[in-house]
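Lay summary. Proteins are chains of building blocks that fold into shapes, and those shapes determine what they do. In this project we predict the shape from the chain. Here is one chain we studied, written as its sequence of building blocks.
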Amino acid sequence: MIKMTAQMREVLAKALDDGVPCLIGTVSKAGRPQISPKGSVAVFDEQTLCFWERSHRGVQANIMANPRVVVYFRNAMRAKELPWRGAALRFHGNAQIVDRGPQLERAWELTVPAEKEKDPKKKGVAVLIDIDLIEELSGTVVMQRE
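And here is the predicted shape, written in a compact code that computers can read:
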């Protein structure tokens, strides 16, 4: 069962301020992998991550072609306080682009101010990721959808 913890919520919310934005892994229609830093990754609800996509480039196109994504988080500076091996987590799931409605507004609310400042006209979209597996860097499963 996926039920993200308060600690996961907290470390993701502080990732950009800590200088360790999450990395999003996507794959293009042609099968080319891409890794992109995203400073706005947040816990949307217990089973969903979100981020604000303002570039409208590779990540968005890749998600539209193939919704399978991985979000990589690691904060080695906080390794002593985090319970995950290597102070790292990989969140695997299916992403969707949301360009209107209450989910878009909620994702905007969860976006850190530093990222909002880069999109003052709010021209971005929300990306919601329905998580089906969370694992440590070692591959040890932390949570998995049943």
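What the prediction tells us: The radius of gyration is 14 Å.
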